[in-house]
Amino acid sequence: MKNSEDLKQLVKDKYSEIAAQTKNQNETSCCGSTCGCSTIDEALMAEDYSNLKGYTAEADLGLGCGLPTEFANIKFGDVVIDLGSGAGNDAFIARSVTGETGKVIGVDFTEAMIEKARINAEKLGYHNVEFRYGDIEKLPISNSVADVVVSNCVMNLVPDKLKAFTETFRVLKPGGHFSISDIVLVGNLPEGLQKNAEMYAGCISGAIQKSEYLATIEKAGFVNLQIQKEKRIIIPTEILTEYLNKNEMSSLAKGDLGIFSITVYAKKPEALQSNKSYTHLEQKAACCGPDSDCC
Questions:
Q1: Residue 32 Cα distances to 12, 136, 182, angstroms
Q2: What's the pTM value of the predicted model, to 2 decimals?
Q3: Nearest to 134 by CA among 166, 107, 167
Q4: pLDDT for res 41
Q5: Domain range holding 241?
């Protein structure tokens, strides 16, 4: 597997290609790109947004693996942050709930996606939705800003997930919460999938064990962790045969390995508990910001 910066560049390049395509083009190409094979996204992105209030077809590139905004308990007037906001689909749905008195901030580190989202927002006349260029491991947002954070099939693409969740903790207000949809594993992923760059961009190779994923959330300081929805992901056989041998295919068919989409909820405590020993990262997230050593 490549190093952290290489993986980030891979994702940036791939999603820059995706930004130039329509949803239909993404659904008939490999990993949402132009590599010309059966689509991974068609297997993963089965959730239908079209009946949700605020849905904007131009902003839906078919890249999610859940409906986090549906489970996020967003209230009128809330400040919502969308991590990995893409062309703006989840941000616009969140805005339909938070209303004109609230605010939605989308963060993405693909410039082409930011540009596309801003154009979509301008067309819709949304003046309380903004899109910022930035890395989820170092968010361009001040401390304790958001009531709610949402994210859709993005954390699995982040090399350092603890940093990403620590940053999520930092930007949430005390008592705020997140609802995040993502891909996780149960059992060891075959080596052919682990090392393949296309499968990484397609959200599979970047996924970690479900138990590790949930433990990372708790390590970042969150409480009241709940799985709001879970479903098994079925990847088409014609795709798997490009990466797996017969024994690995057999193991996958028997259910020894599971690839799941989960939607997870967790809350930032109302106040830091004096009887809890926080790590240095968690202390910085709670009171200092990513570039400060004040704690």
A1: 13, 21, 17
A2: 0.79
A3: 107
A4: 46
A5: 4-270
